[in-house]
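Shipment paperwork, digital attachment
Item: protein structure file
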Amino acid sequence: MTGIGAGPGTAAGARAGKGASAGAPAGSGASAEAAVVVDVPAAREDQLFAALANSTRREVLRLLREQGPQPVQALADHFAMRRPSLSEHLKVLREAGLVSEERAGRQRIYRLEAAPLADVQDWLHPYERFWRERLKGLGDLLDRMPDDAET
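Attachment content:
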C-alpha cells in the first residue's frame, strides 16, 4: 500500500495523476493526458480511508458487524437523518468495498465486507511497532531509575 495522504504537490499525488505529467518536461508541449500515470492502489487506499473518516459510516459498519446483514430501513432507524442521506453513506461504503448490497424483492440488504479493513491494518502495523518500541524504551528507562521510596 502506498500513497496515504497523496495529494497535489506530493510525489504520490503526482503518480496519481493530480496535475502531473510523467515523462514530459515542463513546457515541452507533450500531451499531459497521454503521459499521466495513475497509481490505482493509492487511489483505492484514499477511497478506503475517506470512507472510514466519517462517523456515520463507521457506525453503519459497527451495526453490520454486530447485528449482521440488514435492510436499508433497519439501518436508517438508527440515525436521525433521512433515508436518502443514509443511502449516500452506503454508496460511499459500497464503492470502497466495505459493504455489499443484495436485492431481496424490493429491499436492499447490506452486508459488511471486512476484507478491505486488512489493508488498514497493514498500513497501521508499522505505527503500532513504532509505538511499541518507544514504550518499551520508556519502560526500560523507568526500570533503571531509582524508586522514590528509596530516597
